[in-house]
Write a structure and sequence with these properties.
The protein is α/β, with parallel strands linked by helices. It contains seven helices and five strands; from the N terminus they run βααβαβααβαβα. 42% of the residues lie in helices and 15% in strands. A five-stranded parallel beta sheet has the order 2-1-3-4-5, with helices on both faces. Helix 2 crosses helix 7 and helix 5 packs parallel to helix 6.
Length: 195
């Protein structure tokens, strides 16, 4: 049975912004959990979402590589949905910086023969809401980031899924997927996976 590792940030974790203490949506509510339940008996889904996660830098640090490799060893398909925090957690959002970090991550994944045994999927993250004027520059850079990811993946022969094109509903904060959005996201993801 195939194992799919979804590696991402709070939108993969299923963070519920309605919570005061950072609670997580239930498995039946968050998109990766819904995908896991739908693929019961066909594939195993491993949820590796973490609030605030950015694209990991690849330092010349053997301990970092060892820990990261341990995570990668868990799946047959490594699906990465990162970059939102690389754009949002800055005063001057810059898609190029996120694209550069993703390029270095992909180079590491492709070139390290000890870990390049799995299929890689890059998922362009959902876009911040268009309903908030203050999010407009971040939304614009996220659109550019997803376009850059698409070109990068095409050049490297890696599968790209643009979830930004799905227009899933966001929560009141404009950056986290709503409960309704998680359900829709899962439906699209299941179609893309085709398992």
């Amino acid at each position: 049975m195939k194992k799919i590792l979804f590696f991402g940030d709070s939108n993969t974790y299923g963070y519920d912004p309605r919570s005061y203490i950072g609670e997580r949506l239930t498995k039946e509510q968050r998109w990766a959990g819904i995908v896991d339940l739908a693929l019961t008996g066909k594939a195993e889904v491993l949820e590796a979402g973490q609030n605030g996660r950015q694209i990991p830098g690849i330092p010349g640090n053997e301990e970092f590589v060892k820990r990261f490799t341990r995570v990668l060893g868990c799946g047959d398909i490594f699906a990465v949905m990162l970059g939102t925090n690389d754009v949002l957690l800055t005063n001057r959002p810059d898609a190029d910086k996120a694209i550069d970090r993703m390029t270095r991550l992909l180079d590491f994944l492709i070139e390290d023969s000890s870990i390049n045994h799995f299929d890689i999927i890059i998922i362009g993250p959902p876009l911040p809401s268009a309903d908030y004027e203050e999010l407009a520059p971040y939304r614009r850079e996220c659109i550019l980031m997803n376009e850059g990811y698409s070109a990068l993946c095409s050049a490297k022969g890696i599968r790209f899924i643009d979830s930004g094109a799905w227009n899933v509903p966001m929560s009141y904060d404009g950056v986290h997927i709503s409960v309704e959005g998680h359900k829709l996201f899962a439906e699209y993801m299941l179609k893309e996976l085709g398992i």
